[in-house]
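Hi V.,

You were right to ask for the full record rather than a summary. Here it is.
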Amino acid sequence: MSQLGESVISAINFLNDFFKDVSKLITVVEQEMTNNGLISLYGSGSFWDQSATHYLPGKWIPRYIARHYVEKLGDNAKPDSESALLVFFNVYLTPMQIKEPKPIAVWGVGSQNEEKNCWDNFYKIATNKDGPDFLDKITITEWNAIDDQRQLKEFKYKAISVAELRNEQEVKKIVIDPLLEEIRKLREVNY
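Predicted structure:
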């Protein structure tokens, strides 16, 4: 096999292993959100802005993995797209806004001023292939609020390098427990 062939296989194997680790991380968050009455707004969809066409190779590999959660609409397990409560957990593979780009996890909560389709308010803030516009450094261990987000009453987030989320216990301690506490507070205010 040629050196190029070996390099390509090595790169693909590395990405597959990395994506498996990211999938495990997201699965831990997903399970906890489900256990706490939240549901993914987009089902199992986790990234957009991709292409399968031969002339857009820059869009063949995802740049972020996004999970956005809202309240369940009754017992039928459908997402309430007009939920006042918005929760997100995203992994950005190539965040360009930080000085040392490396894969990062960004998570947080928000609430809307009025109940309307949350896609308009939330998507532009929480999803960006190059990393969120509001993030210029990591690690952010205290809740950071973003003011003046139009129809959002509140929006706060934390961020950390994906490499620091080594196992399920770390994910629960660093991400899930603080996130569930903020969800509880917002539920008390909004419901």
